[in-house]
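Progress note, sequence design subtask.
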C-alpha cells in the first residue's frame, strides 16, 4: 500500500467520523425541539409552569396554598392527590360548550366524601388576560380557579396545545408528580372521565 493510499484511508475515516458526529448532533437537536414542541406526555412530568397566587381567598383555600401565600406557585404544590388542568381560551367555542361539563365534574368531586380534597381542578386561559379569564369565569359560573396566560408563555411550555386540552397530574406524597392523562378534546361522559381519572391515579 502506498503512502497516498494510507493517507487517503485515514482521511476517509476522519470524514466518516465527522459525518457521524454531525448526524448525532442533528438528531439530538431534533429530539430536543420535538420534546419541547409537544404537550406533556403520559408518564412524564410537567414543564416548570409557574402560576400567580390567587387573590381570592376561596381559591387559595381550595388549592391548599395557605391564606398568606403570595407570589407564584407550581402545580405540584397544590394540596391534592390529583390535579386536572384544563388548557382553554375564552374565545374557543369548544371550551365554551365544554364549560358546563367541567363544572359538573367539579361538582361531582366536591359532593363526594371519598374524592373531595383529593382531586382539584384548575384552568389556564391561553392568550387570555386576567380580565378575559374573569369574564369567562363569570359568564359560565366556573367554580374552580382560573389563571391567565396572556403572553402565551405557558402555552408554549405545553407545546402550544389546541383547546380544550386536559392534563391529569398525579401528586405523590413526596412532592414529586407524574402526568397520567394528556389529551385534546372534550371530556365526553363526565362519569366515565371521572372514573378514568380515579383508576389512572389510583385514588382510594
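Output:
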Amino acid at each position: 500500500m502506498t503512502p497516498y493510499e494510507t493517507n487517503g484511508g485515514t482521511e476517509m475515516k476522519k470524514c466518516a467520523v465527522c459525518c457521524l458526529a454531525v448526524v448525532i448532533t442533528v438528531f439530538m437537536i431534533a429530539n430536543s425541539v420535538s420534546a419541547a414542541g409537544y404537550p406533556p406526555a403520559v408518564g412524564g412530568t410537567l414543564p416548570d409552569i409557574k402560576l400567580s397566587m390567587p387573590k381570592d381567598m376561596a381559591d387559595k383555600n381550595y388549592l391548599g396554598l395557605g391564606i398568606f401565600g403570595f407570589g407564584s406557585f407550581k402545580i405540584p404544590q397544590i394540596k391534592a392527590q390529583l390535579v386536572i388542568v384544563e388548557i382553554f381560551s375564552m374565545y374557543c367555542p369548544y371550551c365554551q360548550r365544554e364549560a358546563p361539563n367541567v363544572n359538573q365534574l367539579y361538582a361531582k368531586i366536591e359532593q363526594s366524601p371519598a374524592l373531595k380534597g383529593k382531586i382539584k381542578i384548575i384552568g389556564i386561559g391561553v392568550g387570555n388576560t386576567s380580565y378575559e379569564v374573569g369574564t369567562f369565569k363569570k359568564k359560565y359560573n366556573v367554580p374552580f380557579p382560573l389563571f391567565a396566560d396572556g403572553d402565551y408563555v405557558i402555552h408554549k411550555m405545553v407545546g402550544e396545545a389546541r383547546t380544550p386540552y386536559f392534563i391529569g397530574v398525579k401528586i405523590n406524597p413526596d412532592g414529586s408528580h407524574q402526568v397520567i392523562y394528556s389529551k385534546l378534546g372534550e371530556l365526553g361522559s363526565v362519569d366515565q372521565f371521572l372514573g378514568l381519572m380515579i383508576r389512572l391515579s389510583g385514588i382510594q
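The two ends are 75 Å apart (CA to CA). Work on this subtask will continue into the next period as scheduled.
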